Amino acid sequence: MTVDDLLVALEQRFPASDAEAWDHVGLSVGDPGSSISGICVALDATTDNVLAACEHGANVLLTHHPVYIKAPASFRPACSLQPSSSSALFEAARRGVSIVSLHTNLDRSREARDRLPSLVGMAAESSLEYPDDPERHGLGALVRTEDRTLREVSLACARAFRCEPRVWGALDRSVGRVAFLGGSLGDFGELAILSSADAVVCGEAGYHVCQDLCARGVGIILLGHDRSEEPFVDILKEACVSAGYDGGRISTIVRPRQWNTLRDEELA
Fold this sequence. Notes:
The protein is of the alpha/beta class. 35% of the residues lie in helices and 21% in strands. The radius of gyration is 19 Å and the shape is globular.
């Protein structure tokens, strides 16, 4: 299988037309005609992950997050004065690694919609973006759940996503409808309000956004951007296998945690 064969299969499954206009998806660097020696899947297209792909004998790094949204001015070795995407592209080109990313086009897929709620035993009814059209691809997910408290939903998310979420809202508040969105909430809090969601589970959201939604009766469960989207890495691997690539030649890069939450006893 060539890089281009993989690109065609992934494009059929996650059309680039589903991506946001500002997004950068598909092939960022590499030779479409080269034969694939191995694939590494990861959340981020970083220099470290390019090097890890080489260590695994892979010449394709398939990621959720693109190596850049706006291209750096130049591609150079790692330097604190240059954006990190500069060195990632430099190393990928130098070592013959193709970087392919499926970002907001994957976010809008049915697989992404179903995956996050399923981890906490819930089933998506529709996307958050198009709540009245369950068949349409859209960002996020809306689910109904038997009456649980915000505390119970938060604990279920903490276990499923292996994190210590920051929770806004009264923990004993009853939750009957939950909105899920991987990554940043952005302006989608308003859609959660319009969809009568009692709580939103997402990666991150601004302080004033959370404050406003909480004051309007919506609980917010913040998992951390990376924690909320790590399950999408499994979708990437599944897509490669569905495309006909040998699953035994696909490696998963699990990045060490980039941030930590200090417990109260550590601060005493």
